[in-house]
Every structure is written in C-alpha cells, then in structure tokens.
Amino acid sequence: MTADTLKRIVRAIASGSQLDLVRLARQLVERERRMGHARLASELDSLLVRVPREGNRGTPSIDSAFGLKELPLSRRYGELLATILPRETLEHHMVLPAETETRFARIECEYAARERLGVYGLRPRKTILLYGPPGCGKSLGAKRLAWNTGLPLIKVQFDTLISSYFGESAANLRAVFSSAKARPCVLLLDECDFIARSRTNTKDIGEVSRIVNALLQFMEEYDAPGLLVATTNVESSLDPALFRRFDDVFLIPPPGPAEVEKLLRMTLSAVELAHTLEWPPIVGQLSGASAAMVVKVAQDAAKAAVLTGGKLVTESHVQQAIAELRRGENPAKGD
Predict the structure, then answer these.
(1) What angle do CA 296, 302, 305 make, to 5 degrees?
(2) In the beta sheet, which residues pair with residue 197?
(3) Do the beta carbons of residue 25 and residue 43 sit within 8 Å?
(4) pTM score
(5) Handedness of CA 13, 14, 19, 23 (dihedral sign)
(6) pLDDT score, position 213
(7) Strand ranges in 74-216 using DSSP code E only, listed in sequence order
(8) What's the start-to-end Cα distance of the chain, in Å?
C-alpha cells in the first residue's frame, strides 16, 4: 500500500466520509485483481457486496433533504471536494455593529426578493467576500446567511481540491462551481487565501497561478441560484482582480464596547448572574478581543460557576476567565 493511499484512507476516516472509504476499498480490490491476486480480490470484493454501488444509494445524494443533487468529487481520486453542514449545526446569532448588520440584512432581503427584482432586470447580490481578523465571525456570517435564506451550506474542502497534477486543481474547482449551479446553496470558500492569492506576490507561476485564473473566470461567469461566500483574514494578499468579481465586500470588525456587553449577556443568559457584576470594567478589559474570545470568556465563567456548585456567575468567575484568556494570548507571562 502506497503512502498516498494511506494518506487518503486516514483523511477519509478523519472527515467521517464512509463514501470515500468505500471508493478507496474498491480501488484496492481492483488493484489486487490487476496484480493477479484474484483470490484475495474476490474475498475483499465479497466484503463490499452489501455496500450500494455508485449511482445508487452509495452516491452522496442529498437531494431530498438539502436540495443538492450530489456533492462534487475530485477528478483523480473521487474524493469529496465539499462537505455539507447540517442545518441543525448552523450557529446564526450574531452581534454586530449596526452598519455591518445592515449589510447582512440587505443580502438576505435581496435573496428573498430575487424574483421581484428580476422583473425589473435587477440582480440580487450573490457573491460576498467577508474579511477581518481571526475570530471576528466571518464563518459565522456564512452560517447566518444559510440559516436566514433557508439554503444548505456547502463548505469547500481545500485539502482535496488542491492537486499537484497539472490542471487538476482548476478542474476540481470547476466541479465545485458546477455543483453549486445545479441546485441552490450557500457555497463557502472559507479562508480562501491560497486559491485567491495575488499572482504578483508569489514566485509560483504554476498551479497557483492557474487556479487563481480559474477562480477569476468562474467568478466572472457565476450565475448559480444560491450564494457564494468567501472569507479571508488577510485581504491584502488576495488578487486585486478578485475584488471586482464580488457583488459585496465588507469587513467583519472586532466587537466594540456595546457588542462586547451584548455578547457577554447573551452567552450568560442561561445562568443566573450576581447583582454585583459591573459590566463597564469587564467590557473595558475585553477591549480589542475578538467575538470568539468574548464568548469563550463568558462560557468559561459559566462553566466555572456550575462546576463549583454555585448558583451564580460572580465577578470572580468572570475575572478568572479573563485572566486565563490573557495567559493564553501571552503564555510567557504566565511562567
């Protein structure tokens, strides 16, 4: 068994994809048969006899539940190029500044009114680029759009999309866009920095340049019935030509004081809070923290209160959580 095959098996196990494992098993059976190991091949094949063949129930068909006919597969190995996030797992509550909230609401409103807009020859915003620092809620924004539009969320798997073989990455990307065109969905290109990096800022003029060119072409021709959402932490490294292909590009900023307090209160809403809690000093200590870190502080404080048998989240619980957050950001100071 080759190292490449072992990597593909471990990747399939890690992603929980039984379909990929079945494909790999069948490829191994055929390989043994070609090598003349007919008896071993027959024995292995008999173990797979109860597994549905591709084209039957064995294909990743999700048409009835999610509205997508089939998830896209890689050209060479038939691995899944994207995964679907079940609707019940979609977090969608966001605490945003008014301006950012308005941008999201406008996208959702335009999608809901797409047919009415079409009567007047108007096209709703379909392609969105969200940028900002880590933990600010870019991926959460894609989940929110999927939840509020009722569309399934399909996340591209870049580890299987990118290939070292000439032209295969672009072919895989084409399969992803074709799948999104077949049925409505929110197609998420999460942390798309690699496939969208500037062609002038890299010494690699091979596969990287080809996939960026392919992405630009597919974005230019994009007419899928759903939405495409791309996210990045470092928008400055993206190819400038890509920005013109998006219908909307906007920043997801770190939470300000009002958003920090609202995030804390919302996260702690399931537990009782001590009346002595003073929010302004706590909010001040979390200035500059990402939304994810603010939520973590609140969750850690709540867990500490529950685990110590207390009925209230106190100032002490919150301060302990903030101190742990700071030690995590500056581990050397904790020594």
Answers:
(1) 140
(2) 238
(3) no
(4) 0.75
(5) negative
(6) 86
(7) 82-85, 127-131, 153-156, 186-189
(8) 47
Q: What is the pLDDT of residue 61?
A: 38
Reply yes or no on whether the pLDDT at 67 is more than 50: no
The residue to which tokens 């027959």 are assigned: 42
DSSP labels for 239-282?
Answer: -HHHHTT-SEEEE-PPP-HHHHHHHHHHHTTTSEE-TT--HHHH
Question: In which band, very low, low, confident or very high, does the pLDDT at 1 lie, cut at 50, 70 and 90?
Answer: low
> What's the pLDDT score for residue 197?
67
Q: How far is it, in rounded angstroms, from Cα 300 to Cα 321?
A: 6
d(CA 195, CA 22): 29
Q: For the chain, give me the number of helices (H) and strands (E)?
A: 15, 8
| Cβ–Cβ < 8 Å for 28, 16 | no
Label residues 40-78 b or e (16+ Cβ within 10 Å = b). ebeebeeeeeebeeeeeeeebebeeebbbeebbbbbebe
Which residues make Cβ contacts (< 8 Å) with residue 64, sequence separation at least 6? none
CA distances from 74 to 78, 102, 206, 312 (A): 5, 38, 20, 52
Distance (Å, whole) CA 148 – CA 221: 25
| Conformational region of residue 222, where left means phi above 0, alpha means psi within -120 to 50, and beta covers everything else | beta
Q: Which are the contacts of 31, defined by CB distance < 8 A and separation ≥ 6?
A: none
pLDDT classification of 53: cutoffs 50, 70, 90: very low
- How many Cβ atoms are within 10 Å of 117's Cβ, its own excluded? 15
The two structure tokens encoding residue 87: 């609707």
Name, in order, each residue with C-beta under 8 angstroms of 67's C-beta and a sequence gap of 6 or more. 151, 152, 183, 184, 185
pLDDT tens column, 99-113: 999 999 999 999 999
Q: Residue for token digits 């920095």?
A: 193
Residue 250: pLDDT band by 50, 70, 90 thresholds? very high
